[in-house]
Fold this protein.
Amino acid sequence: MKTIQHYIGGSAGDDEPASWGEVHDPALGEVTGRVALGDSAVVDRAVKVALDAQAAWQEESLGTRQQVILELIRLLETHRDDLAQLITGEHGKTLADARAEVNAGLEVAKFAAGIPHLLKGDFSENVSRGVDTYSIRQPLGVVAGITPFNFPVMVPMWMIPIAVATGNAFVLKPSEKDPSASNLLAELAVRAGLPAGVLNVVHGGAPAVEALLTHPDVSAVSFVGSTPVARRVYETAAQHGKRVQALGGAKNHLVVLPDADLDAAADALVSAAYGSAGERCMAVSVAVAVGEIGDALRDRLVERIGRLTTADGRADGADLGPLVTADHLRRVSGYVQAGADSGADLVVDGRGVRVPGRENGFFLAPTLLDHVRPDMSVYTDEIFGPVLVMVRVATLEEAIELINGGEYGNGVSVFTRDGVAARRFQHAVQVGMIGVNVPIPVPIPYFPFGGWKRSLFGDAGQYGEDGIRFFTRRKVVTTRWADSSGSRVDMRFPAAR
């Protein structure tokens, strides 16, 4: 039984917390560790440590901050497999997928390493005679990140490198379901030269979250999770005067037009729907077949699903691992039953899969439902599991109307050979991230990640230019360096002249 403590001020403490949470190995279905659950007192201690550390950190040169990020990148590359093992052991995704997650986080760190350029302001000379104006960006102070279980390394890495590179101190509250990777991230950051206290990790559930949202010394909160919680985080933090970016849920569609390469579309659908057992906010959960291609597309999906292996994520040849908890397995299985009960065609039923030697694991094999209607819960709700539903429509316009009628607007894709149709689609859909013949349109770090509608609360997405703007405040400075010989009292409103 391993013990995961809070990481505050550059080290993991050994205090006895008020309560402990269980950490499971989802492939074994067994408790393998315990995690300290923080309360308001722990959060207050972490924030005070961060506040003290931030005062000196913001005065460090951009070159020093850049060097810390570069060294962190090197250490993350060196410890990629260590992080992947922790992810798979507590989340369940395959080791290959876990390594890819670390790589995705590294890409944001590489973006943040350009901080000397990214923080350049603007300068205008002679806005009035003898007057110059320029802008600068400065850190907010102490900022917090609340991150989900499905990406215990990548999502914190969306936030941490940019937040600390811009001069802030950071308090991370990761998911208590898979907390170990967060502590290793913090340890590596300190080894990279980040001063103790600039990055702190507080574990826990709702009490820790509430304390961060209401703490007077936390200036901003970045959140990724479900829509109900995202809305709660946004409202509570905003009411307490904080800047907030809160990314919520998704119901991502992949539209297949009649002229598309059906084999390529089927490969994309299976990869995007069942990778990481569907526990991705950018997973495709709805296949929209346009015209008469529905049966042909379904046959290709069934054939590919039959070749997938559900197993312990550490096993050779595993395509997808278990779900994260027994409760989540029951929830996703319940949606499958609800879909069948409401009249959907249960084409492939992944319930009841047995993995030899892992009989107690939280496994659900790939599942496919066809002839799903928009009023069914398997269509409307974010299931967050290896469940793909098929909807059939007659035209592209009907597909666009279907997508725009939903409450989410995270990601969407279209597969077609028709450039006119693709352009019409990307212009008309009310979604933040769009793929054309790309199944999971996650932007590279130079562009921001974020959806529309109930997939994003606030006006800033993650990383990219949005990340720089979110974690800094702008100052505009107007200067005059002239003698007083021509000065006089002037009561008019200032204007350029």
Summary: Residues 40-57 form the longest helix (18 residues).
